UniProtKB/TrEMBL annotation:
Gene3D superfamilies: 3.30.70.330. GO terms for molecular function: mRNA binding. GO terms for cellular component: cytoplasm. Pfam families: RRM_1 (PF00076). Keywords: Repeat, RNA-binding. This is RNA-binding protein. Residues 3-81 form the RRM domain. The keyword Repeat applies. GO terms for biological process: negative regulation of gene expression; positive regulation of signal transduction. PROSITE patterns: RRM (PS50102).
Length: 116
């Protein structure tokens, strides 16, 4: 089973292929992806690497966490699963909601309605 690793505080010069090659020294890499801004295409400074096994992933984490890359100390640890839920507001199965805050909206806060 593969293990996903989070790599943070990456220099903007790091690419998918350079991330892949750095982790390949420790064992099989299934995938390596540097996250980019969807509008500009510029790196967001973090990425994910999927390793072939948990043992190989742990060896890479121990070796690379805290390492300096182009003057930046990178953070390497096991990736947490994405949390369920979404942002504030938007359309969902219950309908459109502007906010989940009870203190915003009509009828609260005096003459002007809710506090913004």
């Amino acid at each position: 089973m593969s293990t996903k690793i989070y790599v943070g505080n990456l220099p903007y010069s790091v690419t998918d292929s350079s991330l892949h090659s750095n982790f390949a020294e420790f064992g099989g890499v299934s995938s390596a992806k540097v996250m980019t801004d969807r509008e500009t295409g510029r790196s967001k400074g973090f990425g994910f690497v999927e390793m072939a096994s948990a043992e190989v992933a742990q060896a890479a984490i121990e070796a690379l966490h805290g390492m300096s890359v182009d003057g930046r100390t990178i953070v390497v640890n096991l990736a947490r699963p994405r949390e369920a839920g979404g942002g504030a507001g938007g359309y969902n199965a219950g309908g459109f909601t502007a906010s989940k805050r009870a203190d915003v909206g009509y009828g609260n806060g005096g003459y002007g309605g809710g506090r913004y």
